[in-house]
Design brief:
The protein is an alpha+beta fold and 101 residues long. It has two domains: 38 residues, no CATH class; 44 residues, no CATH class. Helices cover 21% and strands 14% of the residues. It has three helices and four strands; from the N terminus they run βββαβαα. The strands form two sheets. The protein has a two-stranded antiparallel sheet. It has a two-stranded antiparallel ribbon with strand order 3-4. β1 and β2 form a beta hairpin. It is elongated. It starts with a strand and ends in a 24-residue tail after the last helix. 0% of the residues are buried.
Length: 101
């Protein structure tokens, strides 16, 4: 492992011969770190999390094929209250609809 161009440690799996001699199915991962270079770095300070996190939502609609892409976007973008932004049409499914129409 490297920090600012300096080797500060190693990481790897236990040699298969030693793993097999212990009867382990999976090799343990081992590491060794030089503590001093890590202690010299400035610690990251925790930041408060905003109470209202942004939400990403999918909106699925069933429309007749004659409804144009631009018409759909204009309707969604002009909704009151707003649906959100940015708005894009990511998938158009054609075929039997869940409503049977």
């Amino acid at each position: 492992m490297w920090l600012d161009g300096q080797a500060i440690g190693y990481i790897g799996e236990l040699h298969p011969r030693w793993r097999q001699s212990e009867g382990w199915q999976q090799a343990p991962v081992l590491f060794e770190l030089e503590l001093e270079p890590l202690l010299q770095r400035e610690l990251v300070q925790a930041q408060p999390v905003h109470r209202h996190q942004p939400v990403q939502r999918d909106l699925a609609v069933v429309l007749p094929e004659r409804v144009a892409h631009a018409e759909l976007l204009a309707t969604v973008r002009g909704a009151d209250p707003p649906v959100g932004s940015p708005t894009c049409v990511c998938l158009i499914f054609t075929g039997p609809s869940p409503t049977g129409s």
